[in-house]
């Protein structure tokens, strides 16, 4: 289920001591240079360093990252971590580039589906090892927090991404500022 929350994604606070997931759509080139990605970089520099390293490991063919996700635990010293809450940053690799070289909206939406599948498999794996992710009290579904992914620099109509996200058995909080 998708729930819209008016406010800043980075003000999200989990209800209990569980780990929260903050997700965003990423390019495969190791750059969080603009848009919400730049804010992720300033709030979670440790995650940014891991993201850059992950992308550099695939520098011979960055497109192999398309349709995958990279779930990164943040450091307690990151400015985005406050009041003892821990966050994981979920990088959803939905387009190889941003700007003029970005993929078509149809391809980006297809990669969003694959990236979400990969993210949820990573969450399941971590849960088997004891990580307690934020979940909905009434349904026990995992909560993923995100902006309107793909709608910014990747220029995909939000309705297309929204339709794809609705297929997943997960609660998605979409933060909107407008």
Automatic annotation (TrEMBL):
Top-level taxon: Eukaryota
Enzyme class, spelled out: hydrolase
Gene Ontology biological process terms in this record: peptidyl-glutamate ADP-deribosylation
Domain (Macro) ranges: 1-178
The protein, known as: ADP-ribose 1''-phosphate phosphatase
Pfam families to which the protein is assigned, alphabetical: Macro
Organism, as annotated: Hyphopichia burtonii NRRL Y-1933
Entry GO MF terms: ADP-ribosyl-[dinitrogen reductase] hydrolase activity; phosphatase activity
Family, per entry: Belongs to the POA1 family.
The EC number(s) this enzyme carries: 3.1.3.84
Reaction(s) catalysed (UniProt annotation): ADP-alpha-D-ribose 1''-phosphate + H2O = ADP-D-ribose + phosphate
């Amino acid at each position: 289920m998708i729930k819209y929350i008016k406010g800043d994604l980075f003000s999200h606070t989990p209800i209990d001591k569980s780990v929260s997931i903050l997700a965003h759509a990423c390019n495969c080139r190791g750059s969080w240079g603009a848009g919400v990605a730049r804010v992720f970089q300033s709030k979670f520099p440790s995650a940014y360093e891991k993201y850059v390293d992950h992308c550099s490991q695939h520098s011979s063919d960055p497109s192999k990252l398309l349709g995958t996700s990279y779930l990164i635990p943040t450091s307690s010293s990151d400015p985005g971590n406050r009041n003892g809450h821990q966050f994981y940053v979920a990088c959803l690799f939905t387009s190889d580039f941003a700007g003029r070289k970005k993929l078509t909206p149809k391809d980006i939406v297809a990669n969003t589906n694959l990236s979400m599948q990969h993210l949820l498999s990573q969450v399941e794996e971590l849960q088997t090892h004891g990580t307690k992710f934020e979940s909905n009290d009434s349904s026990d579904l995992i909560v993923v927090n995100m902006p309107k992914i793909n709608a910014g620099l990747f220029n995909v109509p939000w309705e297309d991404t929204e339709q794809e996200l609705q297929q997943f058995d997960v609660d998605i909080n979409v933060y909107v500022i407008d």
